[in-house]
Amino acid sequence: MKKMTAVTGNEALAEALRQINPDVCAAYPITPQTDMMQRFSDFVADGLVDTELMLVESEHSAMSACIGASAGGGRVATATSGPGLALMWEMLYVASGMRCPIVMPVINRALSAPLNIHCDHSDAMGARDSGWIQLWSENAQEAYDNLIMAFRIAEHADIRLPVMVCMDGFIISHSLGVMEFLADDVVRKFVGDFTPQDALLDIGRPVSYGPLIVTDQYHEYKKAQNDIMSSVFDVAADVATAFENISGRHYGLFETYKLEDAEIGIVVLNSAAGTCKDMIDEAREDGVKIGLLKPRLFRPFPYGPIGDALEHLKVICVLDRSDSFGAFAPLFSEIAASLYPRANRPFLINRIYGLGGRDFMPEHVASVINEMIEITGHKTTVLPKKYISLRQ
Amino acid sequence: MTTSLKLKDLSKKEMLLAPGHRMCQGCGAAIVVKMVLLAIDKPVVACSPTGCLEVTTCISDYTAWKIPWIHSAFENAAATMAGVETMYRALKKRGKISQDISFVVFAGDGGTYDIGLQSLSGAMERGHDMLYICYDNGAYMNTGTQRSGATPFGASTTTSPAGSSVPGKMQHRKDITRIMAAHNIPYVAQASPSHHLDLMRKIQKAMSISGPKFINILSPCHRGWRSKSDDAIALSRLAVNTCYWPLFEMDNGKTQLTHTPKEKLPLKDFLRPQGRFAHLFRPENEWIIEQSQTQIDADWNAMIGAGAGASGVIEE
After folding, report:
1. Chain-wide mean pLDDT for chain B?
2. What does the pLDDT look like over A117-166, one tens digit per residue?
3. CATH number for the domain including A215?
4. At residue B311, does pLDDT exceed 60?
């Protein structure tokens, strides 16, 4: 009998961190992540974990401390949002370049200016090229599951790279959802003991971390980093299989919904996928052959399998909750790249929604479905990129 | 058992910063690092921010460090080391490490006074068990002698050049040692490689105290100071004897001079051998030297007046 619980996204992630009980956690408060670390601080204060919690003076120092701790030779976690992730930016590259398997929930939030604390994917998209693995999550259950899997992926002997677990700020982090927790011993056994590699604290075998590498080797070093990222697909898939064995929940590198016989499709990340699925069900009742693809592993990006899953469609709307001003938004660019090598290329449109927490409502999904139907019937000429749900 | 500071004994100790590093010939920082490591007895892990010491001691695939060493970026040596130290406590608590390990940061003045100050302040406030050493050469030497918060009043640097209308840096140095003391950490000191026994005794004292420690060590840089390449020790001795760089320690808040010059020399003696101050000896700029001398005299007298007179001085 499954025990379902109603929790917020932040509560779910704090619970995963309690079960995993990392060696060191360094964090700095920022909305909407704060509430997660407050809950974790309660666990420390009440002795439910014996993690060394470092409450540092900035996110830059949080990531710097995580790098030092990880190099030291133990399991490390932190969490952040929006501007906090932006402040970490320099150190994100150091963490991946030093092969530090740090795990970090990113509670997605908009970037300033203007100041806005609400959901937006600009934070994590700004870090997409930093060499971190990125897992994206529709709801609290997926975020919890992804966080547990993230430690296995990050710390895998062939990978040793940091992982971000992205979850929508407020929409998921502060809203109650129903989900199932795994038992503490099941999680601990799944995550396993941390195996240090080249630990800085191994006094008997001194190592130097963070060398200067100039023009003779830097290029090759970065190529090696790219090669390691390319091997993440298989490891992430294996970890998902192992996770299904303990949870009964199946995870691919991406999720498809009613896509196989579809003619039109939506591609979207995180919580908006839920609203889209509801509207797809309604449209299906009206005879519209529509489906959805929701990437889970965004870095590295599985271009081939995603192209395979989408190439039979006539029209695709890629919904982005972030933008690249004066250019196509990040998710759209990846979907376009997935489909470019194909003989049959679906017609692609890019629609920007929900920036800074703007509500994404069923009628907004209906509008993009209608737009795709009109494009299928060649009844309209369209702008390739457009903002939806704009106030007049 | 602390290491004997007799030269005969020290000469038998292994140098933990190996020869072959690429610091400039005559660099003060390399001398300082070797003195510090010679004085430390326990196993030690070191951290450096981006800077001269870092880029010259670990160029892939080589390292001069015979101890574990980490560099992550420029502004965060204290936070990085704090992370290592925290992992040490976590693993010790969980029985995965048994031996005692100590932690030392070697950072320049740019990474300490300026870009690294927030990270340093945070680490000191949180009470990490580490010794933070600033090797203070008074400018951003690694990038070519740009002015820093540690650059002395009147000095000519590449970003505060002595020109026809502005005679060098027109701001005084930040008093980083007192800023660190204001964190109420258990041990703060100032040292100079010219007084190596005093320096090494301070290191040993710092290492015997748990919690955060800060020592600011003068580190002549002949490239930036425009001085002779074999004068690091002579210049740092002049810095002490002119009271430009007093040797003192603040042990749990009590300030104590650890050396009083037999004869307090005029500041000019320290300035004259250095090209960065050459313009100050022109008649129109003499006011800068006078103002600097007045400031040094006031600071020195204030220290003596506060009862910091030397006691238990180790004679060099």
Report:
1. 95
2. 999 999 999 999 999 999 999 999 999 999 999 999 999 999 999 999 99
3. 3.40.50.970
4. no
Phi/psi at B45 (5° precision): -110, 135
Structure tokens at A243: 């996770």
CB-count burial class (<10 Å; 0-12, 13-18, 19+) for B312? exposed
Strands B187-191 and B248-251: antiparallel
The domain tally of chain A equals 2
Identify whether residues A216 and A264 lie together within a single domain. no
Q: Are residues A201 and A312 in the same domain?
A: no
Name the B residues in 25-54 with CB < 8 Å from any A CB.
43, 45, 47, 54
Q: What is the pLDDT of residue B308?
A: 79
Residue B316 has pLDDT above 70, yes or no: no
The DSSP line for A13-41 is HHHHHHHH--SEEEE---TTTHHHHHHHH
Backbone angles phi, psi at B281, to 5 degrees: -90, 5
CATH number of the domain within which A266 lies: 3.40.50.920
Å between A263 CA and nearest CA of chain B: 50
Mean pLDDT of chain A: 97
Residue A99 falls inside a structural domain: yes
Distance between CA atoms of residues A22 and A104, nearest Å: 12
The H-or-E segment that residue A194 falls in is none
Taking the CA of residue B266 and the nearest CA in chain A, the distance in Å comes to 42
**b or e along A289-319 (b: 16 or more beta carbons within 10 Å of the residue's beta carbon)?**
bbbbbbbbbbbbbbeeebbebbbebebbbbb
Q: B15-305 has which fold?
A: Rossmann fold (3.40.50)
In the DSSP assignment, the letter for residue B226 is T
Per-residue pLDDT band for B253 (boundaries 50, 70, 90) equals confident
Q: Could you tell me what percent of chain B has a pLDDT over 90?
A: 93
Contact state of B67 with A206 under an 8 Å Cβ cutoff: yes
> Which chain B residues have a beta carbon less than 8 Å from that of A74?
87, 90-91, 96
- Tell if the CB–CB gap between B73 and A94 is shorter than 8 Å: yes
For residue A35, give both structure tokens: 């509430």
| Residue numbers of the domain that contains A78 | 4-247
Nearest chain A residue to B83, by CA: A65
Residue A392 inside a domain? The answer is no
Helices (H), chain B: 7-10, 28-39, 52-57, 77-93, 117-126, 176-181, 196-207, 222-225, 232-241, 267-271, 286-305
Q: Which amino acid, A314?
A: K
In this prediction, residue B306 carries a pLDDT of 81
Encode pLDDT of A234-264 as tens digits.
999 999 999 999 999 999 999 999 999 999 9
What residues does each domain of chain B span? Answer: 15-305
Pairing of strands A264-267, A315-320: parallel
Identify the CA nearest to A33 among candidates A101, A113, A108.
Answer: A108
| Residue-level pLDDT at B139 | 97
Tens digit of pLDDT for each residue in A19-43?
999 999 999 999 999 999 999 999 9
What amino acid is encoded at A101 in this protein?
P
Q: Do A52 and A198 belong together in one domain?
A: yes
pLDDT level of residue A377 (50, 70, 90 thresholds): confident
Cis-peptide into A32, omega within 30 deg: yes
Question: Are residues A220 and A178 part of one domain?
Answer: yes
Burial class of B233 by CB neighbour count within 10 A (0 to 12, 13 to 18, 19+): middle
What is the ipTM metric for this complex?
0.97
C-alpha B127/C-alpha B212 separation (Å) is 5
**Same-domain check for residues A243 and A258:** no
Q: Measuring CA to CA, which residue among A192, A248, A233 is closest to residue A75?
A: A192
CA distance B168 to chain A (A): 32
